[in-house]
Amino acid sequence: MLVSAKDTLTCPVFTAWIGGPGMNEARQLLGRAGIAAYTSAERAVRAFNNLFRYGRSMDRLVEIPVRTDRRLT
Question: Do 3 and 29 meet the contact criterion of CB atoms below 8 Å apart?
């Protein structure tokens, strides 16, 4: 169900499949659909945090004023 709904979502999807090697097939299915599938909740949270920080950094770059060639006197 998540795989078919992915294209209608407007936000990133992170999943954590805890259960060892028994979950490999599910992780591979999600990976082929472009959905991040982590082996632990901690890894999923870390990925989400990194994505959030990246987005915030990109927003801050837009706020930096454009440098001009004029010298301030």
Answer: yes
Q: Are 44 and 16 in contact (CB under 8 A)?
A: yes
Q: Please tell me the pTM assigned to this model.
A: 0.67
Q: Look-up: residue for tokens 């060639």?
A: 69
Cα distances (angstroms) measured from residue 68 to each of 65, 71, 72? 9, 8, 10
Cβ atoms 32, 71 nearer than 8 A: no
The string of pLDDT tens digits covering residues 48-73 is 999 999 999 999 888 877 777 776 65
Q: Which two tokens stand for residue 53?
A: 């920080």
Cα 50 from Cα 10, distance rounded (Å): 18
Q: Which two tokens stand for residue 54?
A: 């990246």
